[in-house]
Amino acid sequence: MTKKRKRVLYTVLLLGVISAAAGWWAASHRNPVGPTEPVTAKVMRRDFSSAVLATGAVKPQVGAEVKVGARISGKVMRLHANIGDPVDKGQVIAELEKQDLQAVVAKNQAEVSVAEAKITEVQARLKLAQVQYQRQQKLIVDDFTSRQAVDDALKERDVALAELSLARRQLEAARAALKESEAKLSYATLTAPISGVIASVSTQEGETVAAGLNAPVFVNIIDLSRLQVDAFVDEVDIGRVRQGQKALFTVDSFPAREFEGKVSAIYPKAVLQENVVYYDVVIDITTSYEGLLRPEMTASVTILLEARADVLAVPAEAIKRARGKTLVYVLINGRAEPREVKTGWKDGLWIEVAGGLEEGQTILLGEPQEIGQPSAS
User: Fold this and answer.
1) Per CATH, the architecture of 40-48+310-371 is what?
2) Looking at the domain that runs over 98-187, which CATH code has it been given?
3) Max CA-CA distance within the chain?
4) Which residues contact 99 (CB under 8 A, 6 or more apart)?
5) Does domain 51-62+224-307 have CATH number 3.40.50.300?
6) Beta strands 362-364 and 325-332: pairing type?
7) pTM of the model
8) What SS3 state is found at 173?
């Protein structure tokens, strides 16, 4: 055997001896494995301050966002608004071309004047016919006139009465047409229906807009002083939410600032998001937010429920579900015995126990198999 092979053999034998010695040392110093102690807790009384957490968004109140559009077709002659401009209710926002509308108004005004003159004329003729008829009635008594003359006078009076009635109807029609044309003329001037801020502009000066089934939108106005929060509450928690409850929320733009509000309405129709049922809870903002909040800001909402003092409670991890029952395992003489319990509120990591346990009892937090006990059958 060569010297090189001998060195390799000696090296392998040396490594084997070292590995065997290391294994023996590790085995001799290993701690013996004993049974683990179960994780337990005491049934105790606590003060509960329950709350419902939800995510929502800042929204304009009903009527606080208005889209202003044109009711007639025409060319935009003037646009007195730009994005971000504040506007007052009644302020002129835009004007359409109106020469043809003004001409129609002038024509209808003339027709009203003609109808009024016609009534004056017919009234004069009726007055004369009435006098003639009365005269003929007096003359017929003394046989100074004929029955034919009396009948002709009566006919003239009746014709004048009919013409007067027709003239009055024509005047009403002329006035109605004038009123309609004046209304159309007023549509050529668009004014702000509410006070607020111009949120968007959808047209420009010189464009021609066509009014159809949907009025073409010129501007969108939002009243930033009338905002609310729409919080989407899970169906599991919606049963505990009531109108008038206090709410707190924060927005990402001002994470260190907390705004207050109260629940004002709960929408009866559910909203389905990613196969989860939510209900829209409207929260009126009660703290000042001028210049801070804007529509569509994401809000983290906490709805405060009524507080309950001195209630029996256990850690939430102690509650188990088995065959449709709510169970807690109570340690008695080292054995885990299942107890069916009735639960109530949840406050963080704690759950209220409304029945089935007594204060001071020791309960198991883990599964009963962890301490060698059979589970409830």
Assistant:
1) Beta Barrel (2.40)
2) 1.10.287.470
3) 179
4) none
5) no
6) antiparallel
7) 0.61
8) helix
